[in-house]
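Morning!

This is the sequence you dropped in the shared folder:
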Amino acid sequence: MISFLTSAFAFILVLGVLVVLHEAGHFLMARAVGAQVDVFSVGFGKRLWGFTRGDTDYRVSLIPLGGYVRILGLGPDESTVVGSTEDELEDDLLPRWKRALILLAGPVANVIAAIGFLWIVFMLGMQVSAYLSELPVIGWVSPDMPAAAAGIEAGDQVLSIDGHKVKTWNDLETMVATSGDHPIVIEVERDGAVRTEKVTPERVGPSGFGDVGLRPSLAPVVRGLLGGSAAAAAGLKIGDRITAVDGEPVSQFYDLVRLIEPRPKETITLDVERDGRTLQVEVTTQDLGGKGKIGIRMDFPTEMRQLGVSEALVTASQQTVDMTVQTLRVIGRLVVGRTPMSQISGPIEIARISGEAAEKGIRPLILLLGIISLQLGIFNVLPIPVLDGGHLAIIAVESVIRRDFSLKVKERVLEVGFYLLMLLVVVVVANDMLKFQKVSALFDRIFG
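The structure's back. Tokens below.
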């Protein structure tokens, strides 16, 4: 499993870089509108090292989890000067338009950073599953899953889900996964006719993602073999195409699952195409949890997606827009209870994912930086007190009533927001721990 040290280091790196970028947005906008920046700190807590330039103390602090800027005139938030009196703060408040620009600059910096990280990834190139960018034409419908019960068939093309257009398999999988176990309306096209089906997904995996049993086409080709597997022992090789199991024709990889799983510890005969020849291979299936397995990995073909400078920038921008729409859709579903809280990732889950990305190389890590940077930017504009969006909401109300709230009122609002935020942190950490326990239990069952 991913080592604790790798995950911890990757988490500190990812969070530190993104929070510093966020605070740099506040800092640069404050400079642009003429506000005084008292402190720019990388990290929190005790000051370890730094220097002063102009009116700003640039420092490195003890706790390496992000950073902060202290800007005079923003009011009672994390940047408030300790020890200032209410009169001083009220007298020294910046104009509302300046405060709004400074607050908005942090999330904007994260969005710009997300585009930048994705831009780098697309220029470097990434191995991605080829089917994700293809039209969502169904290759297989799992027999015991909700889509099959609803009458959706292989060959159908998904057009929309709950009225939202579906252009690619990536769109389809994202929309279904984030629906949890709440009913969705799937619109499909079959032989030129359009029909709609109401389907209730099943929750799968530790995160409780929704699944209806729709799968892309996958040829019954051996693309990977597990070490010590029955298939490897029988002489199957990478590139072999299996055309039949005990004489029953196979057209999809999923046919192999359908025909082999009910037969644990049985000898079966596979018709195999190899280098233009057809041969028969006998395999004795293994018993894994009462299901027959032969140890062929279900790998989808991948492609290297590498773009030129301008095309990479356009694609990165479009991907950022698409992810923003998907994120806002998920937030909306969370608010109305259509998406389970278990799908929200907290620090433990982010650390695990960061560790996995770091071990896979620099490109996955940069991609993760882009994805989390965007989520951080979006989360910070939500109208939750303590966050930038909460402060912006207060400024909006003040603009409508044409006066500033008192320092005491703002402090009470921020206190409520802080406790709500801490409650959310407790919930997501609990979710992370539950998911970690489920993943660990699954790992133990599989590998003993």
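Headline: The radius of gyration is 27 Å.

More detail when I'm at my desk.
O.
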